[in-house]
Amino acid sequence: MSETPAQSSHPTFPCPVCEQPVPVGAAVCPNPNCKVNLSALATLDALPASLYRAALAQIQAHRDTEALQTLDSALAYAPNLAEGWAVRGELLVRLGRKAEAGESFQRALQIQPDLAGAAASLAALQGGEAAHRRRVTSLRIGLMVLVAAIALTAGLLMRPKPAVQTTGVPLPPERPIATAYAAQPALAGIRAEETSGGIALSGTVADETTRQWAISLAGALYGGKIDASSLTIAPTATPILPSPTAPPPDLAGAVIAVLQQLPGWESAQLTVTQEMGGIRLGGTAPSARFIQEAVLAAGGVTGVGWVDAQSVSIDTGALQALVTAALQADPRTMEMNITVEQMESGVRLFGKVPRPEYVEAAGAISRTVPGVEWVDVSGLEVVWQGREHVVSPTDTLISISQKYYGVWWMWTVIYDANRDQIRDPRLIQDGIILIIPDASNNMDQPPN
Q1: Which of 114, 177, 344, 444 is the most buried (most CB within 10 A)?
Q2: Which is more confident, 168 or 291?
Q3: Are 278 and 359 in contact (CB under 8 A)?
Q4: Which letter, b or e, does each residue of 114-148 get, where b requires 16 or more Cβ atoms within 10 Å of its Cβ?
Q5: pLDDT higher than 90, residue 432
C-alpha cells in the first residue's frame, strides 16, 4: 500500500486539555492559553491516550510512518501495555517491516502471554496476502479499542456523576483529580470537593498561571462544572532580590550530565539551553527513540519544569560514521573494505571478507558502538579461505610466491586469483591487497 507524504516533519498529538496540536516530545502545551504540564498528565495515562488517538488519525489518513513515530512515543510513556505493542506490530506489518513486527508481537506476548491477537498475528507473518489484508483491517479496529481502553482507565471518558445531596465531600486520593494535584508540588495544597453542582476547588496558589492550570486540569479529568471561586492567589510578598554573587542553578549542566549517560550520546550532537526554569534541546540525534529518551531524562532532573525538543533533528549518518570508524580502528577489520549503511537506530554491513569469523567480528564491533540497537551482517560475503598480502614497492609476483610457497613458480596461482587487480603480471601496484590461495596440491613440480 502506498503512503501519502507526511504533512509535517514533526508528528503531533492533541493536548488532553485544550485539544490543540502538540509536537511529539514537548513537555508543555504550546498553546499560550493552556500551557498544561504534560508530564503531570503522563502519570494518569492521559498523555498516552492522546498519543494513541493521534496515531489512529494518522493511520486513517495513510500517514503510516508518522503514525509509527507517534505510537512509539505513546509506548515510551506506557511501555507495559501489551495491546500497544500488538498494534505497533500490525502497523509494522503494513509498512512491510516484518522482522521488527515480529519483535513487537513477541514483546506483547512477554507482557501478556494470553493475548490471542498478538499470537495469531505473529503466526500469520509467514502467511499469504489474505492474512495481510485481515491484519490491515484489524489494525484500525485494534487501535480504536486500545484508545478507548486507555482513555477509560485514565478518566478521560469520565462523565459528570449524578447530583448528590451532600456538599463539600473531599475527593478520595485515588480519584484522577486528587492524584494529579498530589503529583505536582505547585498544586498539592489545592482541596477538591464533590458537590451537588460539580467539583469545588479551594485553597491558594502562587499565581494566576498556576490557578488556570489547576482549573484546566480539573476540567479535563472530571468533565463537569468546576467552581474555582474559592481558589485564590497567595498575597505577593515584597520580593527579595537575589544576591549578585548567587547565580541561578545550572540546570543545563545537570541535564548534560544526565544525557551523557544515555546509550548513543557519542553519536548525538545535542545543544542544551536553559530558559525560564526549563530546557530547550537542539542539534541532531541518531534516532527518534534517542530523542524520546533524552526528553524523559532531562525532565527528570530536579528543577526542570519543561523540556522542548522540537528543534532536534535525526542525523541518519551519525551511527554510520561511528561504526565505520570502529571497524577501521579494530585490527581484525581495519584492512577490509566494509560499507556501513544506517537504518534509523541500526546499521547494515556490506562487503567481502576472507573468512566467516570476520563476519562475526564485524557484527560484534558494530554492536559496541553506543546507540546501535541492531546490526545486519547479511550483506557481508565470504569470498576466500586463504591469506592476504599487502604489496610493497619491492614486491614481484615471483618474490611473493617464494615468500608464501617457498618456490618461485607458484606466481601464476597468485596471478590467477587476483586478475581483477593485476593487468600486467610484470607490474603490480604498490599498496594493493592480494589474495594468497591455498595451493599446496600444485607445488610438486615446476612448470615446463
Answers
A1: 177
A2: 291
A3: no
A4: ebebbbbbbebbeeeeebbeebeebbeebbbebbe
A5: yes
- The position carrying cell 494529579 is 180
Please report where in the chains the cell 549578585 appears, as a residue. 244
Sheet holding 191-195, edge to edge: 169-170, 191-195, 198-205, 226-233
Work out the mean pLDDT of the chain and round it to a whole number.
76
The answer to whether residues 8 and 58 touch, using CB atoms and an 8 Å cutoff, is: no
Confirm if 281 and 290 have CB atoms less than 8 A apart: no
Q: How far, in Å, CA of 187 to CA of 208, rounded?
A: 12
pLDDT per position as a tens digit, 142-189: 554 554 455 444 444 333 333 333 344 555 554 567 777 776 778 888
Q: Say if residues 11 and 58 touch (Cβ distance below 8 Å).
A: yes
More confident residue, 355 or 225: 225
Tell which residue, 168, 220, 217, has the closest CA to residue 196.
168
Q: Which amino acid is at 162?
A: P
Global pTM value: 0.30
Written in H, E and C, the secondary structure of the chain is: CCCCCCCCCCCEEECCCCCCEEECCCCECCCCCCCCEHHHHHCCCHHHHHHHHHHHHHHHCCCHHHHHHHHHHHHHHCCCCHHHHHHHHHHHHHCCCHHHHHHHHHHHHHHCCCCHHHHHHHHHCCCCHHHHHHHHHHHHHHHHHHHHHHHHHHCCCCCCCCCCCCCCEECCCCCHHHHHHHHCCCCCCCEEEEECCEEEEEEEECCHHHHHHHHHHHHHHHCCCEEEEEEEECCCCCCCCCCCCCCCCCHHHHHHHHHCCCCCHHHCEEEEEEECCEEEEEEEECCHHHHHHHHHHHHCCCCCCCEEEEEEEECCCHHHHHHHHHHHHCCCCCCCCEEEEEECCEEEEEEEECCHHHHHHHHHHHHCCCCCCEEEEEEEEECCCCEEEECCCCCCHHHHHHHHHCCCCCHHHHHHHCCCCCCECCECCCCCEEEECCCHHHCCCCCC
What domains are there in the chain, each with its CATH number?
Answer: 12-154 (1.25.40.10), 169-233 (3.30.1340), 255-313 (3.30.70), 318-382 (3.30.1340), 387-442 (3.10.350)
